[in-house]
Amino acid sequence: MAPPAQSQRSPSPSQPSGKSEVSDLKLQLRQLAGSRAPGVDDSKRELFKKVISYMTVGIDVSSLFGEMVMCSATSDIVLKKMCYLYVGNYAKVNPDLALLTINFLQRDCNDEDPMIRGLALRSLCSLRVANFVEYLVGPLGSGLKDSNSYVRMVAVIGVLKLYHISASTCVDADFPSILKHLMLNDSDTQVVANCLSALQEIWSAEASTSEEASREREALISKPVIYYLLNRIREFSEWAQCLVLELVTKYVPSDSSEIFDIMNLLEDRLQHANGAVVLATIKVFLHLTLSMTDVHQQVYERIKAPLLTLVSSGSPEQSYAVLSHLHLLVMRAPYIFSSDYKHFYCQYNEPSYVKRLKLEMLTAVANESNTYEIVTELCEYAANVDIPIARESIRAVGKIALQQYDVNAIVDRLLQFLEMEKDYVTAEALVLVKDLLRKYPQWSHDCIAVVGNISSKNVQEPKAKAALIWMLGEYSQDMQDAPYILESLVENWDEEHSAEVRLHLLTAVMKCFFKRPPETQNALGTALAAGIADFHQDVHDRALFYYRILQYNVSVAERVVNPPKQAVSVFADTQSSEIKDRIFDEFNSLSVVYQKPSYMFTDKEHRGPFEFSDELGNLSIGGEAADNVVSAQRVEENDKDLLLTTSEKEETRGSSNNGSAYTAPYDGSSTSVFALQTHIESAISNPTAADHSPQASLAIDDLLGLGLPAAPAPPSPQLKLNTTAALDPSTFQHKWRQLPVALSQEYSVSPQGVAALTAPQALLRHMQSHSIHCIASGGQSPNFKFFFFAQKAEEASNYLVECIISTSSAKAQIKIKADDQSTSQAFSTLFQSALSKFGIP
Amino acid sequence: MAMISQLFVLSQRGDNIVFRDYRGEVQKGSAEIFFRKVKFWKDDGDGDAPPAFVGIFNVDGVNYFHVRVSGLLFVATTRVNVSPSLVLELLQRIARVIKDYLGVLNEDSLRKNFVLVYELLDEVIDFGYVQTTSTEVLKSYVFNEPILVDVAHVPSLGPAAIFMQGNKRMPGTAITKSVIANEPGGRRREEIFVDVIEKISVTFSASGYILTFEIDGTIQMKSYLTGNPEIRLALNDDLNIGRRGRSIYDYSSSYGSGAVILDDCNFHESVHLDSFDIDRTLTLVPSDGEFSVMSYRMTQEFKPPFRINALLEAAGSLKAEVILKIRADFSPSVTANSILVQMPVPIYTTRVSFELEPGTVGNTTDFKESSKRLEWGLKKIVGGSEHTLRAKLTFAQEPHGNIAKEAGPVSMTFTIPMFNASGLKVKYLQIAKKSNTYNPYRWVRYVTQANSYVARL
């Protein structure tokens, strides 16, 4: 609490050393303590201020405790406040003194001035001394019933403080249910907001051990509570509005008319001056409409303008936070922003981290109609005095070239870069030309003509040099001088510091040799000799390998070193789509600014109140894999952890359920979800119920159009599953490790399925009704991961399934392993049919 | 869940001025960890450098947020994955509230009033949860009187500060008045300030064609009216919002018609828009302290206040000449001030000699050797006038290729009081009357500043 003891900093000479001043103060305070003379409060104030300023600079003034408390027996609220500040600072380190204070604070909790009651209560709860919790219960109880809203406001947070000091005292005193009552009935919205904050924290913490708390937590996102809060949204302070809106994103409306009601109600929040309110509203809109493609797109259109306004108003820090969100949306749906490209032009005075985001956005939104202008703009930046940005701009041009169909003009620009004779521009451009050639080999003629003119002496950067050498090797038949340039590079082998360049040089000389043997033979010999003598292990090994394979058979060597290549159609994305979805799911949070999902930077205990079984979700996307395919080994590890975590959980919960109970760590909390699900079903079968606005009916039509799932294949008659199959986790784990993947497929999930999949439980029950049992599940919207198993009815032959469902892309990725591989296709059909019926009446 | 763990204010040197720990979850040394990170971080442009210095970064699971206001660092820490906008907005608001109370926000005023600041911080946040940031509401919870500091030489907070620059019409202390301190006479002066502040961004192509333009405006209000009377603020009748169905840069038809078309705008909580659609009137009960009534963004074409002409030509093998022309395209009754024109020159430039037009006063010219740029400062530019600077560059090496590609772009900063480019006007400011004698001072002011004003070569 209060100012920190700055003990690590030695007091400067001008500061009092402490001792004599403190005893001096003590004396003066004592004199004033009993005095009733007029103006005495003013003198006290001066002394108190001195005490507090000493405290702030780190001088120990705890010896004044008694005097301070005595002097505070006054009605002067300024004095009282200073005293509370002082007491708060020293009580924790000095419990004996704190005991002194309790009486005095308890008395103030009954003061007739509500300000004093509130302040005393706040100070009392802030002492954070575990031994005194019993003294808090009484004052908190009356504080919650106080007629003054300020006192109630303080008391509600006080309950939360008590919970953190002693959870059992708080729960035993039944405070959570009092808060719940207040939340739903208090006339003061800040009291309501504080109740909501406190209950979210308390019930989230309790949920791991108490089914009831977990139910209560789910009840916070039930329709009555959400509607009660939404209907009062304008009465809440802007900060409390953010709190409510965040809660609303967790709510699952039962039908689309509800979705439109909520959106219409919140529409004007998009015009709020506070960016936090706007972003929270946007998150609600985006999440509500995830399964309604057209409406979702309309939301993007609608939120563009407010986001752009927020980016250009406010402090640079705020602006960047919003820009990061805009960046996320642009990267998700670039086509929606393609006409807004001018907003992503860089301004000369922007910091480079802003420019970098903008360059990425410009790259993403480039399409047939705007590419020319965007590339022209980017070329301006290439000449920029800000060299890192100039480099990024050139890279951006290259990326656009790689994603465009009409690269004609862009290639010309890139070649112009090469002629600019700025070494960093040349370096970047070389790397790009190389990538471009890998994708569009047909351009080789034009590019080679220009590249051939570049003197390798002007290229110093390893990446660029490697690119140049690669091109020399790859196109040595078209470049007159290639063998000679390579030869001169080989001659300077010792001066080449980069191993990457030396590796490329070896390969290039080899390729050149195959195409023009007489001219290259010399260089090759020198290169191999230098390579074998190289101190770098990789270079040495490669040289030796080339040497031996040449000795063995030259044509084999050619097939190995210079096989015919196919053009690269798509370069690997650096971030997996699963991670991107996850970040999108955490919209309006730090994840977006850091461009990482929260589990990568947040401890488990500090995650949000509704993140459950998180480990599972994390595992499935652990690490920044270069593509979607997680290496087999990682899958193994993940699965091992996955099963361990659930079984550990089982143990700690001491549940006596049998093996199949693994499936539902949050069992019981999903009843409300189920109720909602039936609502959805009825709403969808009766679309006319929902035309509040033309928009609404449109969307419904669309929903119906999309909604009809492809007719599910009839389950193959020969495969019957055991309805009461059982498999214990360790067997599952063992089998999962041993069996090969029999089938790996991706299915689409119907919009209804997506809507119904609010929590894993809903799907579990559904699948169980098709005799497919879940053994472990987890994740969080929009990414869920399940492990299912099933058994043949007549024999003990198992099917194991890993199923990852992303509700944002409405896709399910399935891996099936089977004891009897010959029937895995039949099982897959069965599984798909069961899955496709999910969410459909 | 917005749980702030700690909140502190650091001086530029990294001293703790105030430090409040709300939840005790973050170690005590956080202020030092923070400051070390801020001080030694450079935007080295490595590309992979995380956006560490954008006001937000994470060290060992602790998220640090900060904003810089008046040379002070307002910092919040948390372990929770909160909304970054919320925390940054909150920090700005806390700075604003403190400023409302102290009149002036700087290290000195903060040190003198730290007890009051603690009092505020305790009411703004309780156990990490925001309670209120309304200066109005806080007034009933906060009891310390501010100790006012001398305002003579301190730059004040907020965009309104620009009015302080030698504008004698304004009462000097107006912007630095505390919302609660009584004035020496005992009575408070009844007044209200409405400032229309616009920042313009323009990019001219090498041929003088306008490539991009945008105005970001805000209507800022600061009220010292007692009893919170209702206020009506009427804007242009022909104000339009949104360009539904039209591309943002499709402006040709609207230019010259006189109508003001905003792309988008947002409003303060207290603003009622009941009659906005009918008569473009905003109704509000201004709360105490400074706040922005409305922010808007416009990309409708407007007449840029300055035209820039820049020319760079080789003059012999190791020499070149720069000609910069600035034309003020606004009314002669308006004067722009604090104009600075900058232009990066080729990096191999070693010497520059300047030549101003004969008879010019108040101009400064400089060649910044280290950053290789020309700087041309003008104290004032009267509307309608034109100014020219010639500079001869000497190079250390012979340039290859097009030297225009090695220099530029020319950028310009300026402030133009009593001018706005968007055409948005406050037609009238009506204060609900308490009595016939009640006639508070009303200040409606306009100012335009350059945000990014650039001409390419």
UniProtKB/TrEMBL annotation, chain A:
GO cellular-component term (any): clathrin adaptor complex
Cross-referenced Pfam families: Adaptin_N (PF01602), B2-adapt-app_C (PF09066)
Location of region: Disordered: 1-23, 637-663
Source domain of life: Eukaryota
Single GO term (MF): clathrin binding
Keywords: Membrane, Protein transport, Transport
A GO biological-process term: intracellular protein transport
Gene3D superfamilies named in the record: Leucine-rich Repeat Variant, TATA-Binding Protein
Basic and acidic residues: bias regions: 637-653
Low complexity compositional bias, start-end: 1-17
Signal peptide positions (record): none
Entry's family note: Belongs to the adaptor complexes large subunit family.
Annotated function: Subunit of clathrin-associated adaptor protein complex that plays a role in protein sorting in the late-Golgi/trans-Golgi network (TGN) and/or endosomes. The AP complexes mediate both the recruitment of clathrin to membranes and the recognition of sorting signals within the cytosolic tails of transmembrane cargo molecules.
Protein name (Swiss-Prot/TrEMBL): Beta-adaptin-like protein
From TrEMBL, chain B:
Main location: membrane
InterPro entries attached to this UniProt entry: Adaptor_comp_med_subunit, AP2_Mu_C_sf, AP_mu_sigma_su, Clathrin_mu, Longin-like_dom_sf, MHD
Keyword flag Membrane: yes
UniProt keyword terms in alphabetical order: Membrane, Protein transport, Transport
Name used for this protein in its record: AP-4 complex subunit mu-like isoform X1
Annotated organism of origin: Durio zibethinus
Pfam families, per the entry: Adap_comp_sub (PF00928), Clat_adaptor_s (PF01217)
Keyword flag Membrane: yes
Domain of life: Eukaryota
Gene Ontology biological process terms, A to Z: intracellular protein transport; vesicle-mediated transport
Domain MHD: 189-456
One cellular component term from this protein's GO annotations in UniProt: clathrin adaptor complex
CDD domains from the UniProt entry: AP-4_Mu4_Cterm (cd09253), AP4_Mu_N (cd14838)
Subcellular location: Endomembrane system
Family indicated by similarity: Belongs to the adaptor complexes medium subunit family.
